[in-house]
């Protein structure tokens, strides 16, 4: 990097554009302009090249999706570290204004009214005006809306100290990169809920083996990513990142690693059972080692070098972290029936992806090429259907056009000698009454169909369940998208009898999606073991709205493993030929 170059990251560029879009929306700027900033942000995020350097050198011209106005702003920001336009815009609003967008049910229009009429610029203030009833002076804030807002605030407060898997994973990778640069650091491990593949994470737990724990602790506490130090000892440090994520680090000796790794990986429930089984063998286990309970009657303790040695001592097969929840893994490990869990490399393709035809930001070809770059053999496109008008859903004629485009692209691949197939699908809305957004003759044109609920979230449970069961009973429906509609840390699942839906899926031979978007991870892992055993097939789908979105597949795999899924339980581990046969193509 050249002298005095500001330290601006790709994320800063993208986030700044997103925030500009949001603030312009609050000012009532026209939607084309705000969309240009949003699309620009997505382009910056997914651009395949050093976009920061390109922006700094003012060489953005020609990159699709970044017009002149954005080029200038990105150049200013990347080359100077500041953007006057943004600073001026920010100065007109409180810093807390962005919180309001995290509340389910509040869009720019409502937020604008709240801000202008009642000076609501933070969640704290929003709660005040909802509780006092002041908010009812504004149009569009009826009793039900206010109750929903208060519920959303309460939900957010409950989840205040949780982070989604993507945020946590990226932070952990950044920190591991840093730890690897420390001369005193030996082996570096991430433990805790992240290692277990949990869908959300409270804090990160790092273990570092070292001969010099104090040096490791001091270096960690002084790291550039530390926003606040919570505790700083000679073997243990806790810090906060600037997004509030807490990171605990323990510096240990190499001998302690298997014990510490086992202990700090958890879960608590799993550990309780491990320790109880250890006691039955006359030993006590803690994070540092194994010790005989009764010195006089000490059992023979083998050398423990790995976690597998600990399980072996208990006459158990090695239990992978994903399964350590005390939900049946001990019995399976004792019987030798633990599943061989699916891995990222098992995936050969994926379904449920969007393009610019609906609300995605990459073209059909761009999506296909990104999938090829990921090493996939096929890609299913499933843009929204017409009832999802807010997502620019396709009507029957645009769908027919897209099917033709896909056939053409497949021909082109064939001519180019590229062994890759795009499957033509649709993410067809399940309407309120359980019927589908396209008639059967339209659905019959498609290679496959994903059916999803995108509205009427508040139906009573029985009605919501029946609606979904009716939809998947249509023989054209290949799979059910994001079963519960939850948005982790933001929106509760709608009321639905998941078990009844699983039974219906088994009955109608409908695949259930495991949506890999880190905000969804839906159907929840807690249901997969049993769904699998009831004969339900899974499809791990990124629900990608950009080329980068395809990379979310890894989070789907983490959660699939947590759900005891094996390669054979997942459609998109199959070859193109096998998928074609499954889809009767
Ligand atoms: P999180 O951070 O809330 O997402 O979940 P974990 O599982 O990472 O929990 P955390 O960070 O509090 O502790 C890491 C692991 O350390 C946990 O999974 C099990 C172990 N552990 C911590 N405290 C206790 C405890 O009081 N009893 C037992 N048995 N294990 C504990
Ligand atoms: Ca943790
Ligand atoms: Ca912790
Ligand atoms: Zn959807």
From TrEMBL:
Q: Please report the stretch or stretches of sequence annotated as the Helix-hairpin-helix DNA-binding motif class domain.
A: 58-77, 98-117, 133-152
Return the SMART domains for the record: HhH1 (SM00278), POLIIIAc (SM00481), POLXc (SM00483)
Domain DNA-directed DNA polymerase X: start-end pairs: 7-325
> What is one process in the GO biological process aspect for this record?
DNA repair
Q: Name one Pfam family in it.
A: DNA_pol_B_palm
EC number(s) given by UniProt: 2.7.7.7, 4.2.99.18
Gene Ontology cellular component annotations, sorted alphabetically: cytosol
Q: Which UniProt keywords apply?
A: DNA damage, DNA repair, DNA replication, DNA synthesis, DNA-directed DNA polymerase, Exonuclease, Hydrolase, Methylation, Nuclease, Nucleotidyltransferase, Sodium, Transferase, Ubl conjugation
Domain Polymerase/histidinol phosphatase N-terminal spans what residues?
A: 349-432
The regions listed as transmembrane in this protein's record are none
Q: Which SUPFAM superfamilies match?
A: DNA polymerase beta, N-terminal domain-like (SSF47802), Nucleotidyltransferase (SSF81301), PHP domain-like (SSF89550)
Q: Which reaction does it catalyse?
A: 2'-deoxyribonucleotide-(2'-deoxyribose 5'-phosphate)-2'-deoxyribonucleotide-DNA = a 3'-end 2'-deoxyribonucleotide-(2,3-dehydro-2,3-deoxyribose 5'-phosphate)-DNA + a 5'-end 5'-phospho-2'-deoxyribonucleoside-DNA + H(+); DNA(n) + a 2'-deoxyribonucleoside 5'-triphosphate = DNA(n+1) + diphosphate; a 5'-end 2'-deoxyribose-2'-deoxyribonucleotide-DNA = (2E,4S)-4-hydroxypenten-2-al-5-phosphate + a 5'-end 5'-phospho-2'-deoxyribonucleoside-DNA + H(+)
Q: Give the subcellular location.
A: Cytoplasm
One GO term in the molecular function aspect is: DNA-directed DNA polymerase activity
Which cofactors does this gene product need?
Mg(2+)
- Say what the protein does: Repair polymerase that plays a key role in base-excision repair. During this process, the damaged base is excised by specific DNA glycosylases, the DNA backbone is nicked at the abasic site by an apurinic/apyrimidic (AP) endonuclease, and POLB removes 5'-deoxyribose-phosphate from the preincised AP site acting as a 5'-deoxyribose-phosphate lyase (5'-dRP lyase); through its DNA polymerase activity, it adds one nucleotide to the 3' end of the arising single-nucleotide gap.
Specify the protein name: DNA polymerase beta
Organism listed in the record: Sulfuriroseicoccus oceanibius
């Amino acid at each position: 990097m050249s002298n005095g170059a500001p330290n601006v990251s790709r994320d800063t560029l993208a986030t700044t554009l997103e925030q500009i879009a949001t603030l312009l929306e609050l000012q009532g700027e026209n939607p084309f302009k705000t969309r240009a900033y949003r699309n620009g942000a997505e382009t910056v995020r997914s651009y395949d090249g050093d976009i920061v350097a390109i922006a700094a050198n003012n060489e953005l011209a020609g990159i699709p999706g970044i017009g002149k106005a954005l080029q200038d702003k990105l150049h200013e920001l990347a080359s100077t570290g500041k953007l006057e336009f943004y600073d001026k815009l920010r100065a007109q609003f409180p810093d807390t204004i962005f919180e309001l967008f995290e509340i389910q049910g509040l869009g720019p229009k409502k937020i604008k009214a709240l801000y202008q009429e009642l000076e609501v610029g933070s969640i704290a203030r929003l709660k005040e005006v909802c509780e006092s009833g002041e908010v009812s002076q504004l149009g569009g804030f009826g009793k039900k809306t206010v109750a929903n807002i208060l519920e959303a605030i309460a939900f957010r407060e409950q989840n205040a100290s949780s982070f989604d898997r993507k945020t946590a994973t990226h932070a952990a990778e950044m920190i591991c990169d840093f730890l690897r640069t420390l001369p005193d650091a030996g082996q570096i491990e991430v433990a805790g809920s992240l290692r277990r593949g949990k869908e959300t994470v409270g804090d990160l737990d790092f273990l570092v083996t070292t001969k010099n724990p104090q040096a490791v602790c001091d270096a960690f506490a002084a790291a550039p990513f530390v926003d606040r130090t919570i505790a700083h000892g000679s073997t243990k440090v806790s810090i906060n990142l600037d997004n509030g994520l807490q990171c605990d680090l323990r510096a240990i000796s190499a001998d302690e690693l298997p014990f510490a790794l086992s202990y700090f990986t958890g879960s608590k429930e799993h550990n309780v059972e491990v320790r109880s089984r250890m006691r039955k063998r006359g030993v006590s286990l803690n994070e540092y080692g194994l010790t005989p309970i009764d010195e006089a009657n000490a059992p023979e303790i083998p050398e423990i070098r790995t976690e597998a040695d600990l399980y072996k001592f208990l006459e158990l097969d090695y239990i992978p972290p994903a399964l350590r929840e005390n939900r049946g893994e001990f019995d399976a490990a004792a019987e030798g029936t633990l599943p061989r869990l699916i891995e990222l490399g098992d995936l050969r393709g994926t379904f449920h992806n969007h393009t610019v035809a609906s609300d995605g930001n990459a073209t059909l070809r761009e999506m296909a090429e990104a999938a090829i770059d990921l090493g996939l053999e096929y890609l299913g496109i499933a843009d929204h259907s017409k009832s999802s008008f807010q997502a620019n859903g396709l009507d029957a004629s645009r769908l027919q056009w897209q099917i033709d485009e896909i056939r053409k692209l497949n021909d082109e691949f064939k001519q180019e000698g590229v062994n890759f197939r795009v499957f033509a699908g649709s993410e067809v809305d399940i309407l309120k009454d359980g019927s589908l957004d396209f008639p059967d003759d339209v659905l019959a044109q498609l290679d496959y169909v994903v059916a999803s609920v995108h509205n009427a979230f508040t139906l009573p449970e029985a009605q919501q369940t029946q609606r979904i069961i009716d939809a998947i009973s249509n023989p054209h429906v290949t799979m059910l998208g994001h079963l519960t509609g939850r948005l982790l840390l933001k929106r509760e699942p709608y009321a639905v009898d998941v078990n009844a839906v699983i039974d219906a899926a088994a009955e109608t031979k409908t695949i259930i999606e495991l949506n890999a978007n880190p905000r969804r991870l839906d159907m929840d892992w807690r249901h997969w073991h049993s769904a699998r055993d009831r004969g339900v097939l899974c499809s791990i789908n990124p629900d990608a709205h950009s080329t980068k979105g395809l990379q979310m597949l890894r989070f789907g795999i983490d959660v699939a493993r947590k759900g005891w899924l094996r390669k054979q339980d997942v459609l998109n581990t199959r070859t193109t030929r096998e998928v074609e046969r499954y889809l009767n193509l």
